[in-house]
Amino acid sequence: MENERLILVTNDDGYASKGFAAAIDVARTFGRVVAVAPETPQSGMSQAITMYNPLYLRRISQEPGVEIYSFSGTPVDCVKMAFDYLLRDARIDLVISGINHGSNSAVNVLYSGTMGAAIEGSFYGCPAVGLSLDDHGADADFEAAMIYGRQIIGEVLSRPVELPLCLNVNVPVGRPDELHGIRLCRQNRGFWREEFYRHEDPRGREYFWLTGDFVNGEPDAEDTDEWALHNGYVSVVPVHTDLTDYRQLERLRRFFPTACDGAPESRK
Amino acid sequence: MENERLILVTNDDGYASKGFAAAIDVARTFGRVVAVAPETPQSGMSQAITMYNPLYLRRISQEPGVEIYSFSGTPVDCVKMAFDYLLRDARIDLVISGINHGSNSAVNVLYSGTMGAAIEGSFYGCPAVGLSLDDHGADADFEAAMIYGRQIIGEVLSRPVELPLCLNVNVPVGRPDELHGIRLCRQNRGFWREEFYRHEDPRGREYFWLTGDFVNGEPDAEDTDEWALHNGYVSVVPVHTDLTDYRQLERLRRFFPTACDGAPESRK
Hints:
The structure is a homodimer. Chain A is an alpha/beta fold. Chain A has a single domain (2-190, 219-241), classed as Stationary-phase Survival Protein Sure Homolog, Chain: A, CATH 3.40.1210. The first copy, chain A, has 7 helices and 11 strands. In chain A, helix 1 (18-28) links the parallel strand 1 and strand 2 (32-38). In chain A, helix 2 (75-86) runs parallel beside helix 4 (113-122). The longest helix of chain A is centred in the middle third of the chain and has 16 residues, at 143-158. Chain A starts with 5 loop residues before the first strand and ends in a 16-residue tail after the last helix. In chain A, 51% of the residues are buried. Chains A and B meet through helix 2, helix 3, helix 4, helix 5 and strand 8 of A and helix 2, helix 3, helix 4, helix 5 and strand 8 of B.
């Protein structure tokens, strides 16, 4: 009864991107597909939502088993549109976000529109998988990402997973037979050091354009996604959204001694 | 030597918001202030960065001890502009993001531009504090938020804190003497159920506008930020950015038995 599954596909590069088509192709293996992607590229949009603008929905195509829409908002807006409007009365079995043109390992999970959408999908009570390929090119070769994506999604759909489940999957560049397999990883520590490219626009106004380099804070740690990706492995990092820093919570008790968190001194 | 500290202030409601002025006022207590806020309101922008557009910087005002700029990007862009360009050669002692018009408790930490900027600030090796008031009004009364903000920031600056440190501080509505004090909390579990407001624009095209309600997944849990906020306490949640779900990482080993993460089977 595999074909009765309903898979939502979204991405952050826009409905016309090659990676979106690749993700739809992966999704079709597993069931009926509804795909909603941003009207325009939305890389770096993180988990942003559109609060100040009306949004427009457009059906791009409809064929048996695959409906494709564009939506004029962010990747997270697309997920909300699918769950809360388009497919409101349906049961969605899985969300696939991607396949992103560019990796989303390490701290990039926080800036990534692909992962913002995957995380949002996981809030709705189904597994969510973000797929990214370490190649920004519009014509990137998605074959290996599709093969590994199918394998990982197949496992997720056939196993008794515990929810919420959100996976950040990154695939290195290479032919399928050049990759070394899948590695379960933790998120690498690192940060971006930016350079603002500075120039004058045609009206003589100075502008800035963000550019920068990722600094790997632990290049030798073999259990991280960065290491896996740079050593020919497909990295799989399960992602959660409780941002509470429990270690700091303990430390901070020393600084705020009257700020109990279990039995306030003067509960009314 | 308190006046020699350098405090970066940013926000997501824009440089003209009342909350930004309130945050600058708080920051002045502790040192010299450079403030960089978005040109336009950027609520819900999460940790988004601007990749596809040039950005413009504008000095709004300069007086002894306080320089204010607007930047045409996201809240995170503002933080990057300050650290990587404007104050590149300076040592920033603290980042304050806010004071937000509206609370950022629970899962809202993920959508929040205020907290996106605070998290970004914490990546640069100084403590960062996001301050939010549970009142969306443009004319909200920030007095209590300023008093508590000063108290919390005073502790952070005078104590030997461990970095990275990023605090998500939310202040309930009320006069200062009506609030019950500070509570250290964890992030409440919950989610948004959205309704898309649907209407026709003046050209007859159907549009959607995001609206919704927050569903508190654990309304009785007294150690959460939502509980604190709704019971008259100022909530303080330390926030971290390792999104690795370590529990799922353990579980997933069963599904991907060949995917080791310490000793790959075929390391080259």
